Amino acid sequence: MARRWAATLADTKGVTLPPEELEPLLLEVAHDAVDQAGSKHDGALLRFTALYAASPMGIALADPDGDIVEANLALGQLLGCSPERLRGRHITDLGSTDHDVSRLEAGLEKVRAGRERYQERMLLDHAEDGQLWADVTLARLPGDRPGSVYPVLMVSDANELHLLQERLLHQNVHDPLTGLPNASSFTTKLEAALGAGARDDIALIYLDVDGFKVINDGLGAGVGDQVLRGVANKLSAVFTGHHDGFVARLSGDGFAVLLRGELAATEVVELVERALEDLNEPIYLGGHGIGVSASAGIVVRAAVEGGAAELLRAAEIALHRAKEAGKAQWMLFDPELDARDRGRYQLGAVIAGALENGEFSLVYQPTVKLARPDELAAVNAGLRWNHPEKGELDSDEFYPLAQTTGMTVPLGRWLLAESLAATARWRTRFGEAAPDVCVRLPTRLAIDPDLVLLVKEQLDKHQLPAQALRLCTDRDSVLDPRGEVLDSFAVLADLGAQLVLTISGSADLELIPQHRLPVRHVILSGPVVDALDTPEPTEAAIRHLTQLITRARELNLRIGAEGVRTHEQAARLRQLGVVAARGPFVSDSATGDEVDELIARHPGS
């Protein structure tokens, strides 16, 4: 159109048009422009009206003040009322809570200030259901006058999506069985409590149900689940409401509690004791009154004194100590004790490398005949760790750590192999004067299913008769439910190995007839021997020892003793019928070449 009129006005053929001729031309231009603009405006208006009416999204047109002028059917259906009831209401009136109203007010201000679009998820009033989660968009439409703005509100239903997201979020951070926050949620809460600027005291409590496996396996997993729910409820009842108490289920039968604020250890301990008492009260399920006990590890410190990992580790160590101390009790984390334990644990962690690097050696203790102390009855072989930094370590310093780290069997195998190698060397040098070697089996090795094969392989390797080996064990190994200890001992006895049982009382001695143990020697140990290491032993101690020795003779057993300190103690034992003994009264220990000299001075018969 513009090109056409430009051409018409420009084509004057060199003649200047007077105003009365130019005016009709300009009026014709204006009428043509208005006709075309009106046609396009009407079409756009019709299309907008159709879209507005048919849109599945709720739409409300408002005046510059924010009062709703028109609302479509979709918005009425979304809010549970007719569109007519929405006309005249202010946009902010649709908010369900004060917070939502404030957000709508803020959105209107931003749109008026020039922002193209404002979007939020919020709660709107629903005429029948009360509240509705909706995705709300506020936009601006140009007004009739330059600079004027008409707000438009667009609303889509987000209720089901929001509830689904909330449900998934809840499941992601909560334990489905107990409804408590889960381990992930607890870690997040703890890290927030220890975040930058934290000035509170922090108490972290780990709780573990004692013997839960007995309940779960004995009464069924369903009952076990109900017990865990009961535990969760009792813990929540005690700790929630105290110092921002936060209770979570970590895994299995493990729970954790976080407290914040001005805390004293005594106050935290009181809450823990109350919780442990409540857990002891029976929960009645299916006719069973089920009471549970729990162990608890407690850490109380200022939030600025360490990170989450250190705090969690401290609580775990305290819980472990509580269980080691007998369960059903609490233990407060002790930094000084922890420092000592760290050294022990570091020691235990490097046992495997020390064995491979040749840091272990044999240490021997002679057993002599009490009737002829210059003759050896046997040589007891043990382990010594020649630590590059800590020096010589006796077995009682590292065997408990080996038990924890699973190194007991490798150490026991090495002890047996090296002991038999030494025995073969003695027999070559001393012939019949060479003593038998006695090896005390750690419990884990005694119950090992390959024990018989291991012993036979080493005897064959060193060309030794089985009679040259004495295997010493104790009550715990005999009664250990794992493995087939009795069968292994029977086979070893058939091979010719001499089995020795360490006893400290009548109950230990009676294991021999009860289980038909093929034992040939018993070794008196502990208080029953220590009782004679006094100037005047009590009559009861002598009577007890006499009864043990009499019973051992009835069972055709040879009787020895260990831990004998003095010659006077050895003499008393001999008078009562003990035939051999070892201990400081002879020699504490001998290593390497020293044992050869010892054998040379104390030949066996």
Task: Give a topology summary.
Layout: H1 2-10, H2 19-54, E1 58-62, E2 68-71, H3 73-79, H4 98-112, E3 117-126, E4 130-142, E5 149-157, H5 159-173, H6 183-193, E6 201-209, H7 212-219, H8 221-239, E7 246-251, E8 254-261, H9 265-280, E9 283-285, E10 288-290, E11 294-302, H10 308-324, E12 330-332, H11 335-349, H12 351-356, E13 360-369, E14 376-387, E15 391-394, H13 395-405, H14 408-430, E16 436-440, H15 443-446, H16 451-461, E17 469-473, H17 475-479, H18 485-495, E18 498-503, H19 506-509, H20 511-515, E19 519-524, H21 527-530, H22 539-554, E20 558-561, H23 567-576, E21 580-581, E22 590-591, H24 593-601
Parallel strand pairs: 11-12, 14-16, 16-17, 17-18, 18-19, 19-20, 20-21
Antiparallel strand pairs: 1-2, 1-5, 3-4, 4-5, 6-8, 6-11, 7-8, 9-10, 13-14, 13-21, 13-22, 14-15
Helix pairs in contact: 7-8, 8-9, 11-13, 14-16, 16-18
Structure report:
- This protein has 605 residues and is α/β, with parallel strands linked by helices.
- It contains 24 helices and 22 strands.
- The strands form four sheets. The protein has an eight-stranded mixed β-barrel with strand order 13-14-16-17-18-19-20-21, surrounded by five helices.
- The radius of gyration is 45 Å and the shape is elongated.
- The N and C termini lie far apart (134 Å).
- The model has no long low-confidence stretch (mean pLDDT 84).
* Cα Rg: 45 Å
Instruction: Please give the order of strands in the largest beta sheet.
Output: 13-14-16-17-18-19-20-21
Helicity, as a percent range:
40-55%
| Separation, N- and C-terminal Cα atoms | 134 Å
**Average of the residue pLDDT scores:** 84
Low-confidence parts, pLDDT < 50 over ≥5 residues?
Answer: none
The tally of helices reads 24
Percentage of β-strand residues? 15-25%
SS elements, strand count? 22
**Main sheet specs:** 8 strands, mixed, barrel
Domain EAL: 344-603
Keywords: Nucleotidyltransferase, Transferase
GO molecular function: diguanylate cyclase activity
InterPro entries: Biofilm_reg_signaling, EAL_dom, EAL_sf, GGDEF_dom, Nucleotide_cyclase, PAS, PAS-like_dom_sf, PAS_4
